[in-house]
Amino acid sequence: MKLFIPFLFFAASLFAADEWPGVKFAEVRAYAWKTGADGPPPEENLIREDMTLVDGVINKDGGVLTAEQVKRLLAAVTGEHEKHPVAECYTPHNAFLFYNAEKKPVAYVEICFDCLSTRKSQQKAPEWVDLPALAKLFEELKLPIGKYADAAALQNRLTDFKRPSKTDVPDNSKQDAKTK
Q1: Total structural domains in the chain?
Q2: Residue 97 — φ and ψ, nearest 5°?
Q3: How sure is the predictor about 87, in pLDDT bands with cuts at 50, 70 and 90?
Q4: Which DSSP helix (H) or strand (E) runs through 108?
């Protein structure tokens, strides 16, 4: 029985190979890079092909996500999410790296909150993600969220995109004058 309990704990600590990321993983860590001149060069990916991190990461050991945070992360990067504008630039400053039981990276999600864009290691990942939910995870881990002070600031930006601007609203005043 004593041998069974550690095995049960170890087995429960491994996350099953869900549809995304499509590989078994034991742990997820969040990483952040500085913004501005001290950050990574524009258009540079944070996670290299061999899944190592580019220089300049603020928290070299990464912030470990709890099981509940991992569930929210997976929900934020899978399923149907609202579309939003995406800038043509791509200057990411945040990433989640998934590790297997041997502490080897097996998948990632890289995020550019400033450009409202992501890059994922698995091709079958949905295009749209829940950016405010991802920002909330970084906020909980006390890590910067690109240029935003907090997750609420990012949510406000996305909300602003939904509001019609004066140029989006047709000017019916001339039409109204003709009908009077």
Answers
A1: 1
A2: -120, 130
A3: confident
A4: strand 105-112
